[in-house]
């Protein structure tokens, strides 16, 4: 059962849209909704941090800024949870009893299975829950880091439950289309494996290599980091990401991430062996594969 969500024409999709956690992602949603009159007639923002609330009010990103999540969601037709993965189910459980019948609950966390598992006991039959994951972001966080075009031409993955109302899924797809994104529906287990390899493992590698280089600089009292060339600098961009967000992602996608790390470690060992034995063909083949992948991403304008 869904409320009155207008997916046709140019009238707003929602009367009131509430964003809980207006950081990088939440504030980008608010900015886009502010700019594009077809998303929501009224915008409400709610954050646990007084500094974030003050900044969101200062930037004029919402019509109302609330400290109390129950007040924030009371008249919302759609609530989007944009808090770190570890807080999604907790905040969802707290607000669900206060939501209007027919309103849609959605969230943007980077992992899906553990969020769905933790929130399921609190779900209401009259409040459809649609988990999503916009595949767009930066290494910055907080309300100042957001921008209205963040989701343009990026994928947003939706992982509805088998019994999620298809009408609600369709409303949330329309929301993301109006955010500028393309949508794809998949199951949560597949989502978590895909994201483990294309997003979570690369972040793990970036954090690790920065730590290794830093340890080396300490040990040798040398200036290795001063001479960091562009390859290392590219890793440091990713490694600048928010610690709480990434702690939560690693712990909540543990199985898929550890599986991908084990596969990566095997492949890295194969490279080590090729280097040790001077296997030129193997080394060149690996490097050529990397180039091909980069080129195909650039052709699809993803890089
Ligand atoms: N940063 C990125 O590139 C992407 C992040 N995501 C996901 O989106 C979510 C938000 O990420 P960001 O916007 O980067 O984070 P952020 O750190 O910029 O914003 C999160 C906001 O949530 C607030 N918050 C934390 N706990 C809260 C609670 N219990 N109640 C109310 N507010 C609370 C924080 O004060 C902060 O303002 C995360 O789940 C993340 O995994 C998804 C796609 C990309
Ligand atoms: O900044 C980058 O390179 C990112 O990879 C951004 C990002 C971070 C987390 C996600 O779940 C999706 C995208």
TrEMBL record:
InterPro entries: 6-PGluconate_DH-like_C_sf (IPR008927), NAD(P)-bd_dom_sf (IPR036291), PDH_C (IPR046825), PDH_N (IPR046826), Preph/Arog_dehydrog (IPR050812), Prephen_DH (IPR003099). Residues 15-303 form the Prephenate/arogenate dehydrogenase domain. Keywords: Oxidoreductase. PANTHER family: PREPHENATE DEHYDROGENASE, PREPHENATE DEHYDROGENASE [NADP(+)]. The keyword Oxidoreductase applies. It holds the Pfam family PDH_C. The keyword Oxidoreductase applies. This is Prephenate/arogenate dehydrogenase family protein. It comes from the Bacteria.
